[in-house]
Amino acid sequence: PGDAGERLQRMGVRTLAALRALPRDGVRRRFGPALLDHVDRLYGEADDPLECYAPPDHFEARVELGYEVENHTALLFPLRRLINDLCTYLSIRDGGVQRFVLRLEHERTRTDVEVGLLAAERTPAMLFELARSRLERVTIDAPVLALGLVARHLPPFVPATRDLFDTRPQQAMPWPQLRERLRARLGDDAVYRVAPADDPRPERAWTRVFGDTGAPSPTAPPRPERPAWLLPAPVPLRDARLRILSGPERLESGWWDGDDARRDYYIVETTQGQRAWAFVPPGERSGWMLHGWFA
Fold it and tell me: Which residues are CB-neighbours of 137 under 8 A, at least 6 positions away?
């Protein structure tokens, strides 16, 4: 360290063996402790912590095409190669990918195709199918000269648990893969799950939940019996011989958001024997509005 090498040369010490033969106390007084520490690390007699190589926390690759490509089919081979490289990288770092971008490079411009998943994945076949579905929905306005893939959102990957004696048919597709394939073909907002809400108005008693939030689904508050089929909007119920089976259930809500609802709900039976869920204004028995059917 420092100019210790030149000073040792002038003293006639030209090898490490000659240096180690000198008294350590004398070397320490003349050169300081840094020289002895350096020699001890060279011979493994002192700890020498080294910084381990950490791979970058994002993936970026590019395949330059040998000719101008103007259709989706010719892009599938380089796309599969990029997906396989991505999955290999994810396996090495024991991670997954939740969002990546396909870059179609033209002569002067670039087209970005975003591919998003609801949960982290690293299965090559699944990621290729999703990327291909998104790519086929993009119009190629100019010849493609290169294809790139950039993935910066790489969360930890948690494999799905399966039973030891899984009875699922061989051709059946796991739900996460089916969900992502439907989203790729139908759109991101086409697949969702229904969760209960705390609004007593029937048309607002549920909400759409997109993705896997990880939080437990809210529990619906206790309510009287509800129909399995709720109509999009109430319609007049014209039946002069309705038979009331139960009710009324008074509902008064929504005064705070301008959509005030004041109704008396009844379970009624029509002349055809169907059980319906209908309401009338509070305290009345005419002007029935049908809101749902019971199975």
Answer: none
Burial status of residue 265 (CB atoms within 10 A of its CB: 0-12, 13-18, 19 or more): buried
* Residue 58, number of CB atoms within 10 A of its CB: 12
- Is CATH 2.40.50.90 the right assignment for the domain spanning 59-153? no
- Coil, strand or helix at 187: coil
Domain boundaries, the chain: 4-42, 59-153, 229-293
Residues 107-128 as b or e (16 or more Cβ within 10 Å = b)? eeeeeebebbbbbbbbbbebbb
Structure tokens, 116: 């998003």
Give the model confidence (pLDDT) of 181-200 as tens digits. Answer: 777 667 777 777 777 777 77
Pick from 45, 75, 225: which is nearest to 138 by CA?
75
For 250-277, the pLDDT digits (tens) are: 888 877 877 788 889 999 999 888 899 8
pLDDT of residue 150: 93
